[in-house]
Amino acid sequence: MAEKLARRIRMANIQINMDSLNPTSFKKTVRHKVLDGSNIYRFLPPFGSESNGYPYRKWNVIWGLVDPTSGRMRPFASSSTFEGRCPVYDYLDILKQKVEDLKKTGAADEKVTELEKYISAIRPKSVYAYNASDKSGIVGVLELKSTAHKKVISLMNEYITQYNQDPTSLNSAVADSGVWFKISRAGTGFNTTYDAAKNQNSTKDPNTGALVYQDDRSSLADSVVENFDALAYDLNNIYQKLSYDDLKDILIANLVSASDALPELLVPGFGLDDVSGGNVEQPVSFVQAATPVTPVVPVTETVVAPVATQTPATANTDDLLAMADDIFNS
Question: How do residues 24-75 score in pLDDT, each as one tens digit?
């Protein structure tokens, strides 16, 4: 008895969550991908203490930077999402003006083109993250671009008006049911288009023989309904949040590295002062990019939260379209 009491006292002094020491307790983030053609998903209810009743979370994501500490490409959340300002936006405002000035002075087209490619590579891209389930019952994060997101929101409003029901409900009863959506994708690269519609099933009218279309309100997998709280993701934490200053340090490290091939990338306040003053100490693990633009980061189906699996920064500028086509699913 005394031994058990003593053990309880010792454990009371341990503040760490013991579950965090169990390797099997780490939750992995499943990311759904919008593939060519039609993709059927059901958007799930708002989840997490910061959801504020929203079934989605907007993120501005930067895909074109290398993490100086690992030497690998990975996505960074723009600090504009939670601080209202971002060093990448501030830098791009300056660099865009520099490009315009270079054009006026008759700078070589190749140099201007490379600068414009770099701007495109690191410009934050807006995505709207949802918790969603596919027909097989796999719950994951589904990211949509603005065009598809706006269409989904419009369809949800339409559904509420028509049924007076929640389109994200876990239920599938006549008086309370969510609905399945069809997210479609066509084209490649910057010519990729996305659309959304309510998924519908067709039946023949027994009297006329004409096809009648009805919204797909079929059931979610039982596992999703019963284990929603364990399967859903807090959409406010699917990307690491770095402060303005921390993100700026990462940006400057990337600019200094890329400036060997394109010195025009350096501007006052973003690398130029550091290089001229000898203040930049490059981490030994920082992988030097082969070209100024290296924005290829394939997103795997399952990655360890809060960031996606990374690949070395060895791609060339021609891979930008492939990156956009493969990663940005909305």
Answer: 444 689 999 999 999 999 999 999 988 989 999 999 999 999 999 889 999 9
Over the stretch 85-102, which tens digit does the pLDDT of each residue have?
999 999 999 999 999 999
Each as own residue / partner, the long-range contacts of residues 187-191 (CB below 8 Å, 24 or more positions apart, any chain) are 188/321, 188/325, 189/321, 189/322, 189/324, 189/325, 190/321, 190/324
Alpha-carbon distance of 30 to 224, in angstroms, equals 14
Helices and strands, counts by H and E, the chain:
10, 16
For the whole model, what pTM was predicted? 0.74
Q: Using CA atoms, how far apart are residues 242 and 80, in angstroms rounded to an integer?
A: 10
- Cα angle vertex 157, ends 152, 162, to 5°? 120
pLDDT band, very low/low/confident/very high, at 209 (cuts 50, 70, 90): confident
CA-nearest of 197, 217, 183, 194 to 155 is: 197
- Candidates 218, 61, 53; CA nearest to 126 is 61
Tokens of 12: 């009371």
Terminal C-alpha separation, the chain? 60
Residue 232 CB coordination number (10 Å) = 21
Condensed to tens digits (0 to 9), the pLDDT of residues 149-202 reads 999 999 999 999 999 999 999 999 999 999 999 999 999 887 899 999 999 998
Residue 125 near residue 144, CB atoms below 8 Å: no
Going 319 to 322 to 328 to 330, the CA torsion angle's sign is: positive
Helix (H) or strand (E) holding 231: helix 228-231
